[in-house]
Amino acid sequence: MSTKSDVAPGKDAAKKIETKAPVKVTKKKKEPMIYLGPDIKGIARYCDVFSEKAGSFFDEKAKEVPILRDLLFPINEGGKKLAELKNGGPAYRLYQAAKEQLMKGDKRKNEQSI
């Protein structure tokens, strides 16, 4: 009994056989991140270095103040971003905006606890 999927040896069989090189799966190693934002009590301090990501406490705070994520930089960009902070560049403006938002959040918490 013959089916359509049976292939007789010959030219057609040679065409259907494909050889593929094994696929190498390389896990991209994430580099450490440096936090260049205002201190967050009990969570992060200016120039803290985190391996891969900042952690769950930082993530929770960043849900309240999303701009904090913008102040995490790959460690190899740290020098450039520190220069921006000192010279009033984009990193400085992010820092100031984050500082204001953190202060507003702290004021709201204090008012609610009274």
User: What is the quaternary state of this protein?
Assistant: single chain
- CA radius of gyration is 27 Å
- Helix percentage range: 40-55%
Task: Tell me the structural class.
Answer: mainly alpha
Figure out the total of helices.
4
Order of strands across the main sheet: 2-1-3
Could you tell me how far the N terminus lies from the C terminus, measured between alpha carbons in angstroms? 87 Å
Q: Which of globular, elongated, flat, extended, rod-shaped describes the shape?
A: globular
* Number of separate strands: 3
Tell me about the biggest sheet?
A: 3 strands, antiparallel
Q: What's the rounded overall pLDDT mean?
A: 79
Strand percentage lies at 5-15%
H and E string: HEEHEHH
